Sequence to fold (176 residues):
Amino acid sequence: YKGMQKTYGEIMGATASPVKVNNLFRIQDELGIPISLTLNSMSMGKEIGSDNQVINGLIEYIKSFYDRGLRICTISATHLMRTERLQEAFPEMHWKNTVNHLVKTTQEVYDYVALGYNTILLDRSLNRDINTLKEVYVETKKLGVETSLLASEACMPSCPFKGEHDDWQSELQKTS
Fold:
C-alpha cells in the first residue's frame, strides 16, 4: 500500500497451506462441521476502512472462501463493519467480533451489535463477573445475537503486550 508491504489478519504468522484449507472445507462439506475465517489484527492502517482498492482486495480474499461455503468470519475491522460493505458482499456470513476488542459491558455489546456483528466475543474478565454476564445474557436474547467466552487463550486477560505483539508481528513477517 503506497509503496509499503502491508498484511492484515495474520498476527501470529500462522497461515494454512492450500492443502490444509482444502481439508478444512472437506471437513465442513462431509461432516457438517462449520469452519471459520479469523482476521483479528488490532493493528491496521486506515486504508482497510477507507481505500476502495484495499477494501475490494479484502472482499475478494474473503469471497474466495465464501464461494466455497464459508459462512463464519471473525474480523476486527470495526470501521469496515460500520460501512456495511462486508455485510452487503456476504449476506449469509455470520460475523464475530474478536476477543481482542475486550468487550466488558452491556453497552459495548450493543455497540458491536450496531456495527453488524452476530456473535459478540466477550472479554475473559467476565468469567469472574457473573452479574455482568447475566445482564449481557438478557440483553443479547432481546437483540437476537449470540455471545461467546474463550475458555483458554495464550494471551493474558487484558494482555498488556497485545498492541506491541500485533505491531511487531506484522513487521517480523516482512523480514521472513
